[in-house]
Write a structure and sequence with these properties.
114 residues, 36% strand, 6-stranded antiparallel sheet
Length: 114
């Protein structure tokens, strides 16, 4: 849905432009995100390419903890003006729901057998 809205307002929409289906490198596109930084096994930072009233990033950090791993997901938004602030707070509940589901799915996939 977000991809269609983005296309309608002149953004890139949803696209898949990974060079390799098994790994990502800086510059790769993932849906409407661009890989900005990666440290294998530790960090993945994605920059939003969708049309927004500001700039946005989604970051994942993995650290060892108690014989397993802890994954931390951080959504960052640098709003432009009042419109940016209104956008962020208006969609806070939706973002919280979507990002929590995304993190659950990542954890489930990581725990799945080979």
């Amino acid at each position: 849905m977000r991809g269609l809205i983005d296309l309608a307002v002149g953004g890139p929409g949803m696209r898949r432009s990974r060079r390799d289906p098994e790994s990502v490198t800086p510059g790769d596109g993932l849906d409407f995100w661009r890989v900005e930084a990666i440290e294998p096994g530790h960090l993945l930072r994605l920059a939003a390419e969708m049309r927004l009233p500001g700039r946005a990033w989604l970051q994942f950090e993995v650290t060892p903890e108690n014989g397993g791993s802890l994954i931390r997901q951080t959504a960052l938004f640098d709003p432009v003006g009042v419109g940016g602030l209104l956008y962020w707070y208006a969609l806070y509940g939706i973002h919280r729901f979507v990002f929590a589901g995304m993190l659950r799915n990542i954890a489930r996939a990581a725990e799945a057998p080979g």
